[in-house]
Amino acid sequence: MQIDLTGQTVLITGAAGGLGRAMAQTFHAHGANLVLSDLDVDAIPAQERALALRCDVTDAGSVAGLVAAGTERFGPLDICVNNAGISGPWGRLMDLSAEVWHRLLAVNLTGLFHCLQAEIPAMRDGGRILNVASLAGVSGAPNLAAYAATKHGVVGLTRSLAHEVRRQRIRINALCPSFTETPMLDAFGEDTSRLQTPLNALGRFGTAQEMAEAALWITSPANSYMTGQTVTLDGGISAV
Ligand SMILES: NC(=O)c1ccc[n+]([C@@H]2O[C@H](COP(=O)([O-])OP(=O)(O)OC[C@H]3O[C@@H](n4cnc5c(N)ncnc54)[C@H](O)[C@@H]3O)[C@@H](O)[C@H]2O)c1
Q: Which residues form the Ketoreductase domain (predicted)?
């Protein structure tokens, strides 16, 4: 399947991280212009046809500035990948501080709210939105309960918005990875081999590149009839 995004503009949040970087490289390789953003803008690799800007998704003004700068440079947005996120620490909800709970909500859920509000009016008719949720957005995640709550919210927003944006013919879907080899896994402070489960039919974690290939296909013009859906890439964990 040939996917040609030449002349199309893709906005990605969290573009300095594991998934964001792989997605940026993959969309770029298929011809897209990129509007890349992260809290840590210096960690976004420079490339042609790409604008890199610092953006904190918890700040509505920062997100509005990102979208304004992106559209000024490349015109209306074709694809928005709302990927910025944090996991919080591995552990029981009883041990989680209120501060960490509020931070998780602010980044993973309120951050997505800010992004959607800024992006949708700036998108071309027929645009595509991909929200990065998690397997923890469609099933429980012991030791990551607060994270799971935020990602269930991401899925709820995705499903609901599919109908709200239909006049613009925007398709909106969520990607639900299970554990994927990125710096996020290190943030758990756990021996990552302990996170592996016998329910994973493929016997390994996913890679950022596998998630990026899925993101490309989900948002591609070829995938024209899917909206309001979750796409789970979990090595078969949820199949049993
Ligand atoms: N790695 C996994 O196992 C896994 C599994 C399921 C879902 N996810 C989701 O994938 C997405 C990307 O995660 P990743 O694995 O690449 O992690 P990562 O930590 O490598 O990247 C996340 C990026 O988000 C950025 N970020 C954090 N807070 C931000 C804020 N307030 N504003 C803007 N940017 C901010 C970070 O600076 C970082 O570059 C996240 O939404 C995460 O929840 C990851």
A: 8-182
Residue from 212, 216, 218 nearest 231 by CA: 218
Which residue type does 174 have?
A
Q: Please give the pLDDT value at position 188.
A: 72
- Nearest CA to 2 among 235, 239, 226, 216? 216
Ligand 1 binding site (Cβ under 6 Å of any ligand atom): 13-14, 16-20, 38-40, 55-58, 83-86, 107, 111, 132, 134, 177, 179-180, 182-185
pLDDT digits (tens, 9 = 90+) for 43-74: 999 999 999 999 999 999 999 999 999 999 99
DSSP-assigned beta bridge partners for residue 174: 131, 230
Q: Which residues of the chain have pLDDT under 50?
A: none
The parent domain of residue 36 ranges over: 9-239
User: What total of structural domains would you count in the chain?
Assistant: 1
Q: Is residue 27 part of a domain?
A: yes
Query: How high is the pLDDT of residue 192?
Result: 78
- Note the pLDDT of residue 107: 98
Distance CA 48, CA 147 (A): 35
Q: Which two tokens stand for residue 228?
A: 């309001």
